[in-house]
Write a structure and sequence with these properties.
single chain, about 55 residues, mainly beta, Rubrerythrin, domain 2
Length: about 55
């Protein structure tokens, strides 16, 4: 997926405490800080904020 590119693979985890994660890529040059996205959590069936994990 991010084999020879400058994008890094990261995990974003739900803040609802369900432990659900998405795997995405981000450009470290454009977004050096931790990212947050509002995405769907299928465990609680709602859109919640997902934060980047280590």
């Amino acid at each position: 997926m991010a084999g020879n590119s400058k994008r890094t693979i990261i995990h974003i985890e739900s803040t609802a405490g369900t432990g659900y994660r998405y795997t995405i890529t981000k450009s470290s040059r454009l977004h050096p800080e931790r990212v947050e996205y509002k995405k769907y959590d299928p465990i609680i069936r709602k859109h919640v904020v997902f934060k980047e994990t280590k």
